[in-house]
Structures are given as C-alpha cells and as structure tokens.
Write a structure and sequence with these properties.
Elements: H1 11-29, E1 33-37, H2 42-53, E2 57-62, E3 73-77, H3 88-91, E4 96-99, H4 110-130, E5 134-138, H5 164-179, E6 182-188, E7 191-192, H6 198-207, E8 225-226, H7 227-239, E9 246-250, H8 258-268, H9 280-289, H10 293-299, H11 308-313
Parallel strand pairs: 1-2, 1-4, 2-3, 4-5, 5-6, 6-9, 7-8
Length: about 325
C-alpha cells in the first residue's frame, strides 16, 4: 500500500531543524583531546596555543617535552623518531593526532629522512588505526613538487618531489593511506609568522635592511601560508568528517611576489618599499655568483598552489 511522502510543517522550520542537526553533528565530531607531535617547533608551538585557546585539550609531544603554561596543555616526551617507538600509551590519551614531527630545515641524508619522516609516520599511522583515531598528517608541498613549477599545482596532479625531503614526505603519505587509519593529509606551502624559518624568513630579514633592494622587477608569484591560516585549516579538518580520507593543499588564497613580501614587511616597519627594478636575469646571475642558485629557484621562480579544495569544504582563511 502506498504511503504519503513525509510532511514538514513549513520550509522555514525544516531549515531550522537541518541547521541544528548540522551544528550538532559538527560539535559531536569535534576531537576533545589532540596529540600534537613536534610541538616544540615553529609550527607546533603556534598550533598548540591555537588549539588550547579554542577549548581543545592538547598533549604537546616533543623531544624537549615542554609546553606553554595553559590549563588545557600537558607536555609529553618523544624519543628520537629514527628509533622504534611504541605509540600506544600516548594514543590512549587522545582522540586525534596532528603529526608534525620530522626533519625539515636542516641537512640530512636519505636514510635519516626515510627513518624519521617515512618509517616513524608509518608506525604512528598503524598504531592510530589499531586505536581507531583520526590522524592529520602534515606533509608538505615538497611531496608534490620541486622548488618551483611552471604549472599551477593541484591535489589531482601526479606528485613529482625533487629532493630527499619531498620523497620521504610522499612515502609517508602513501604509508598513511595504506595503513587503514582514518586520515587527513595536509600539504602546506612555506609558512610564515613569528618564529618562521626557511625562505620567507630570509626575505623578511633582507627586507629589514635599511637599503634599496634590487627586486622590483621580479614578477614570479609564489604561494605562502600564514601560521594562523595553517592552524585554522587544522581545526577545519579535525571538525569536518568530509575531510577524512582526503589530501589538501594549504595556502593563503592569494599568491605573492618577492616584491610583495618585501613591501608588506617594510610597511609593517613603517618604511617605503624602496625596490629597484633590476632586470630579473641580472638578479639570477647575482644569486648564482654567491652560490645561491638553489635559493633563486625558491624565490625568483613561480610556485602557485591554491587551496581551492579546502575552500570548497568551507575553510575561511583570514
């Protein structure tokens, strides 16, 4: 016998009910306690403080076992991740993991990159799977591309890492996917903010010099990411179940040139940009003459990786 279709009193009432259900689903999905590995680094320190300020309990795990003085944060020691480590005791205390620990801004050989960035992540993912936790693995845009790209990068493009660091991060991503854990993979571009490292830090230090700089003619755009936007992206994927099983590029929506970065930095310092339009080829040759050819590829060549997929999920960067 046929039955009548479900009837709702009015469209407005249904919208209210639907909104309330969506809100409840989001809150119920939120992880109460998050284990952050690599909590003593530039990104980790900022992320721990960001999560704690938003009501999360945080286990700040690091080699130094230090944590900010905040009632929501406890410190936990991590050993050298090049050695075998039993994650079970730490995982029993958390609802989700944000895995930052690894080797990045220093020279290391292939074996160390493999042990720390790949094998340790593999062991963590398998342990998290056994405990039914959600693992947010912070990879890198280096897992997808070399230091520059003439084509705009997307998550769907075949990954082509160009160095040992990038290859170890890509291998770690593959291990996470194969482990069976509930996962989200983030591929951030270079991150800037208080305590920053890497090429943006170098550019900001140069911008602080009280001299004219020969970068006015550089037009190559590069994607960068503020530390606050990175932290908000982490919260987004922790709270939205649609992020599970997905990989996301994370960047500020608008790419910048080196000239833009210097101008913005000098504006903060209350100075004019003072940029001289020296031909790009001359600048490139100057970098090469000082043995900085690799640095040129990271500042003078393009790398655009937009966060379109993350924005489509509802991420609202500042």
């Amino acid at each position: 016998m046929a039955t009548d279709a479900p009837h709702f009193p009015c469209t407005a009432s249904w919208r209210v009910l639907k909104g309330a259900f969506s809100c409840f689903a989001s809150v119920s999905f939120m992880a109460a306690t998050v284990l952050v590995t690599g909590a003593d680094g530039f990104i980790g320190r900022n992320l721990v403080a960001f999560l704690a300020s938003r009501g999360y309990g945080v286990i700040a795990a690091s080699r130094t076992a230090s944590a900010p003085d905040h009632p929501n944060v406890v410190a936990a020691p991590l050993p050298d991740l090049a050695l075998p480590f039993d994650w079970q005791a730490l995982l029993e205390r958390c609802d989700a993991i944000v895995h930052l620990a690894g080797i990045a801004h220093r020279f290391s050989d292939d074996e160390q990159y493999n042990l720390v960035n790949h094998r340790a992540t593999d062991a963590l993912a398998k342990a998290a799977c056994r405990q039914h936790k959600h693992l947010v693995f912070v990879s890198s845009i280096a897992a997808q591309s070399g230091p520059f790209s003439e084509q705009e990068l997307t998550e769907e493009a075949p990954p082509r890492p160009a160095n040992s660091y990038g290859r170890s991060k890509l291998a770690a991503e593959q291990a996470v996917r194969a482990s069976g854990v509930r996962f989200t993979i983030l591929r951030p571009v270079v991150i800037y903010g208080q305590g920053e490292k890497g090429n943006v830090s170098i550019i900001h230090r140069i911008a602080g010099l009280p001299i004219p700089l020969p970068f006015g003619a550089l037009k190559a755009q590069r994607s960068v990411l503020s530390i606050d936007n990175f932290c908000s992206a982490v919260v987004m994927v922790l709270t939205d179940p649609r992020a599970q099983g997905e990989t996301f590029i994370v960047s500020d929506p608008t790419p910048l040139t080196v000239s833009d970065l210097i101008s913005r930095r000098r504006a903060v310092l209350g100075r004019s940009p003072w940029l001289v339009p020296v031909p790009e080829r001359w600048v490139e040759l100057s970098f090469a003459a000082f043995g900085l050819g690799d640095t040129w590829y990271r500042v003078g060549k393009p790398l655009i990786a937009r966060p379109s997929k993350l924005l489509a999920l509802g991420w609202k960067p500042s």
